[in-house]
Amino acid sequence: MLAVLSPGQGAQKPGFLTPWLALPGVEARLREWSALAGVDLVHLGTQADADEIKDTARTQPLLVAAALLAGEHLPMSDVALVAGHSVGELGAAALAGVLSAEAALTLAGVRGREMAAACALEPTGMAAVLGGDPDEVVAAIEAHGLHAANRNGTGQIVAAGSLDGLDKLAAEPPTRARIARLKVAGAFHTPYMAPAEAALAAAAAGITPADPTRVLLSNLDGTAVDRGQEMVQRLVRQVTAPVRWDLCMRTLAELGVTGVIELPPAGTLAGLVKRELKGEGAPEIVTLNTPDDLPAARNLIARQAQTEGKHA
Questions:
Q1: What span, in angstroms and rounded, lies between the C-alpha atoms of 263 and 71?
Q2: Selection from 161, 163, 165, 162 nearest residue 150 by Cα
Q3: Which of 192, 276, 296, 311 could form a disulfide linkage to 187, CB 3.0–4.6 angstroms apart?
Q4: Is pLDDT of 266 > 70?
Q5: How many domains does the chain have?
Q6: Residue among 85, 144, 147, 189 flagged as catalytic
């Protein structure tokens, strides 16, 4: 089984879409999506510097657009499973047929703007807790009034909440763990984002989703969702709920995924999968960053499809 993964905020790099604009129709597509998302995706993907694309309101639609652009150049009909990390779930939902590209970009624009606005309401932040016993780490996070916002796999749990709570956690880290503050605008995937969740729910109410045409995993619990309406509800809920990427990777292992393609800007999720799904049976991974990587990605899809055909 082959999985296509869509990365989330923090994966972006200045100019990462520049090589894609050499492909026919890409610039026109981005301009069309820019009108829906409320940001200039061509500028953000080619000329904007790191600070500009760090802005949540800009980053989120940019990442969804990148995933969809790359997906349009892959034989997705031969892909068995898709999943996304945080805002990457919007891209994954579109690639699974739940949302149109236009709906995904519209929702990404709303999500990004409203999460940025929620961050401005009070000073909050996030910090990665690296190492330590997972149960002890979560207990320490909660003891300081913080939330375990992301569980990205073995040895990486992200704490989020008040700056005072994060300072106290850094001063008293869990045993055998170290704290690394993250350069983010606020406490994503926590109750601090409640206004953004409400705004996204209102926007999503005007969309009629379809049921997924392939396996689609949810960040809430790592399970496969087979109803489009349920997935949209989960996408809305995810704004304030923790990202359980660890459970998504567990599902990849349980389903016997043998090939992984990470969409641009690729590398982050590939690294997590490589660290978690190792040893015998570890999946072959392709990081798709530029059009030059498309032949390798298409080749992996073709080989996986051929193998699955033999075992059908």
A1: 8
A2: 161
A3: 192
A4: yes
A5: 2
A6: 189
Adjacent-strand bridge partners of 216: 82
| Residue reference for tokens 């989330």 | 8
276: CB partners within 8 A, 6+ apart: 153, 154, 246, 249, 253
> How confident is the prediction for the chain on average, in pLDDT?
95
Antiparallel, parallel or unpaired: β 259-262 and 284-287 = parallel
In single-letter form, the type of residue at position 112 comes to: G
Contact 56, 64 (CB under 8 A): no
- Distance from the first to the final alpha carbon of the chain: 12
- 86 catalytically annotated: yes
Sheet of 156-162: strand order equals 147-151, 156-162, 124-131, 177-181
Catalytic residue among 6, 34, 85, 86: 86
**Shared domain check, 221 and 170:** no
Instruction: Name the band, by pLDDT with cuts 50, 70 and 90, for residue 299.
Output: very high
The reply to whether 208 and 64 lie within a common domain is yes
Nearest to 1 by CA among 292, 281, 243, 271: 281
- Domain with 155, as residue range(s), is 124-181
Residues 73, 29 share a domain:
yes
- Predicted model pTM: 0.95
**Is residue 100 among the annotated active site residues?**
no
CATH of the domain at 258: 3.40.366.10
How many residues can be counted in the chain?
312
Residues 199 and 175 grouped into a single domain: no
Strand order in the sheet with 215-216: 215-216, 81-84, 2-6, 259-262, 284-287
In angstroms, the CA 2 to CA 79 distance is: 6
